[in-house]
Design goal:
It is globular and about 55 Å long. About 4% of the residues have low confidence. The chain has a domain of 219 residues. Helices cover 14% and strands 29% of the residues. Strands 6, 7, 8, 9, 10, 11, 12, 13, 14, 15, 16, 19, 20 and 21 form a 14-stranded antiparallel sheet that branches.
Length: 456
């Protein structure tokens, strides 16, 4: 394992000292002053690593390509680059310490076709200055008590994390544009390689947590801590046309709500348990609610532990994945490696184990959270028998117009036991891939609005 960084040593010490406290305290003003100094404004190590394979962060990618149109296909700024090397089943032992268990599992399961092409590392993560300013305020103000975030708004809540649960809240509240539209498409692939569309939908998304014109008080009071809103209106496949779903995620445990529109009943129903290992209607029941975006929803069902910070090969700057038609990137058992891009980055490795008295289909999980963006990009899932079951993944892309490096709603998982897999955010054939929107009216994300748009 790579040496534990000085940032992690501070975090582990702080976690030990506060382990007996009900609430996790914010860091001191002195510690917060490191943001923008030896740490990036988001809390990552600003310096390059020892051998220079991870460069220093110098502000990220904020250069918008000529001719870019909002909502159009995003070009690959590194299209001319070739892999530095390719990890295969034959040479994986050489790189094993920098690979997730899921990637190693896929290399072993599909030795002839699955590969990890490693490219030059580009630290493209960026955000507006006001998000950096809010992050610095959050560092010395935000706390975590009984899985509820308090005192955070408009930035990373815990840029200098003290425990694993804080890291996962950083993922949930990571920076992206406050309002956007995506033409959502999902694909299930069976164990014998048959591709089955699960959803074609118009997707609207809003993150009140990042409303620039708002503040901590209005966010927690007016919106009751709802940090994420989603509305999907299905137009395919034919069997699912007309279905719809509206969801709200809250910083308060149990505060989220989800409603679905059933075409057969022509009624809107509130889901009683839109959480955790419940199958999500948006994927036709293929994936669990908390697999959305690698991890989503409440943190209260698990104990969270930081395993360490490591230099690992992870999907990154994956713009190349969306340049070709979807039929070209979908292979029988995985995405075509020619369309994937992996880079070496520092990640927080966080392990989740289900709490006593709780249950989950995957009682043990491990997440790999990028230090620059705070997005979880890989995950390992073990089943109740202790077998490595699934590899979760997302493919973050650089979006300098926002600016951000964030998942364009592209995520999925490989089932290492059955051989089936799922990919959401298959935007290759979409007319609008990721369109930045003006703030939606709040009524847009209500069950009443969804009921009024029912077409079957």
């Amino acid at each position: 394992m790579n040496p534990v960084s000085s940032t992690l040593k501070v975090a582990l010490l702080s976690a030990f000292l506060t382990a007996s406290c009900v609430a996790t305290a914010a860091v001191s003003e002195k510690e917060a002053s490191r943001l923008g100094a030896d740490l990036t404004p988001f809390g990552a190590e600003k310096a390059a690593n020892a051998d220079g394979s991870i460069p220093a962060w110098t502000g990220g990618n904020t250069t918008v390509p000529a001719g870019f149109k909002n909502g159009g296909k995003r070009s690959d700024p590194y299209a001319s680059e070739k892999p530095l090397f390719v990890i295969t089943a034959a040479n994986m032992d050489q790189y094993a310490d920098s690979l997730s268990e899921g990637l190693k599992g896929m290399l072993k399961k599909y030795p002839e076709t699955f590969k990890v092409p490693v490219y030059k590392t580009h630290r493209t993560a960026a955000a507006p200055q006001w998000v950096y300013d809010n992050t610095k305020v959050n560092a010395s103000r935000a706390t975590l008590s009984d899985s509820e975030v308090k005192g955070a708004f408009g930035g990373i809540p815990f840029p200098i994390p003290q425990n694993g649960e804080q890291v996962m809240w950083n993922h949930l509240l990571a920076w992206r544009t406050p309002s956007h539209h995506v033409d959502v498409r999902g694909m299930q692939t069976t164990s014998n390689g048959q591709h089955v569309p699960t959803i074609y939908a118009s997707g609207d998304f809003q993150m009140p947590y990042y409303f620039k014109e708002s503040n901590l008080e209005t966010f927690t009071d007016d919106d009751e801590g709802v940090f994420w809103k989603i509305r999907l209106l299905n137009y395919g496949p034919p069997i699912r046309a007309g279905e719809a779903i509206v969801g709200h995620e809250s910083i308060k445990p149990g505060g989220g709500q989800t409603w679905v529109y059933f075409t057969g009943q022509r009624r809107v129903r509130k889901l009683p348990n839109a959480c955790c290992d419940t199958p999500t209607p948006a994927s036709a029941g293929i994936s669990m609610f908390d697999q959305t975006g690698v991890f989503n929803g409440t943190t209260e069902r698990f104990n969270w532990k930081i395993i360490g910070k490591k230099e690992m090969y992870i999907p990154y700057n994956a713009n190349r994945l969306f340049q070709r038609p979807s039929e070209d990137i979908l292979m029988d058992h995985h995405v075509n490696p020619e369309d994937m891009r992996y880079e070496k980055h520092r990640v927080w490795v966080v392990e989740a184990t289900v709490k006593d008295g709780q249950r989950h289909l995957s009682p043990k999980r491990r997440y790999y959270v990028d230090e620059d963006t705070w997005f979880a990009v890989l995950a390992d899932h073990w089943d109740a028998n202790g077998d490595l079951w699934q590899m979760g993944f997302s493919n973050p892309i650089t979006m300098p117009d926002i600016p951000a490096t964030a998942p364009p709603m592209n995520f999925g998982f490989y089932d290492l036991i059955s051989g089936a897999w799922y990919l959401d955010g298959l935007l290759n054939d979409s007319k609008e891939q990721y369109k930045v929107m003006e703030r939606y009216d709040d009524f847009t994300f209500t069950p009443e609005a969804m009921a009024g748009e029912g077409i079957r």
